[in-house]
Amino acid sequence: MKIKTVEIEGKSYAVLNDQGLPLYVHDDGKEVGFDAVQTVAKIGQLNAEAKNHREAKEQAEASLKAFEGLDASKAKQALQTVQNLDAKKLVDAGEIEKVKTELTEALKQTYEPQLQQLTKERDQVQNQLHQELICGGFARSKFIQDNIAIPTDMIQATFGNNFKIEDGKVVGYDANGQKLYSRTRPGEIAGFDEALETLVGGYQYKDSILKGNQSSGGGFSGQGSKSHGPKSLSECKTKDEKVAYLKQATENQ
Questions:
Q1: Three-state DSSP class for 70?
Q2: Domain containing 29: what range?
Q3: Are 179 and 199 in contact, with CB atoms under 8 Å apart?
Q4: What stretch or stretches form a coiled coil here (predicted)?
């Protein structure tokens, strides 16, 4: 990206946004104010994290030196032998496996129903969280309200799988499985609307889902022309083709 400038009396000056930040132009034409103070603070934070990781690694390596030359498989075998010797004090060596089996079955009957119930409750909570954060994000999205011409549920069907819940927050991912980072807040994860705008900007059929000529500005790099798609809904082979076909059919009514 490069800084946006203006020529005045033969001299170049940086263009500032409403917050007094110099504007930089990304490769797709989107203009973003560069907050140098926030960026320097973020770099300092990342450097501190890197230092903590390095120190933890060095500490772990130092701890492992105590086990240099130890054969892990032989150590496990020796521990198993000791365990069997201790068990022999209680039961005959030929009965050890039987005792283990009976104990395992008893524990399974006692705790498996509780584990199943806890798993069910966990899944219900996860589904509720998914509904509130991701589905709610689509429902409340200002970007969708201002820029998208098709129903919200169709946009969610197209891009819903690009969002995941991590540490209680919605995180967007691109088609290559890479996290989407903010352009206005360097080093930070992109918010829901910013991530969705990026996904739509790279969408093959964006011209069919954007309002009016939205695809020709605001960071969108599409051609703005309608493609000659399938002639009927039954001819659509993919979900994206169905979305584009339904959008075009709605406009032609």
A1: coil
A2: 2-33
A3: no
A4: 43-70
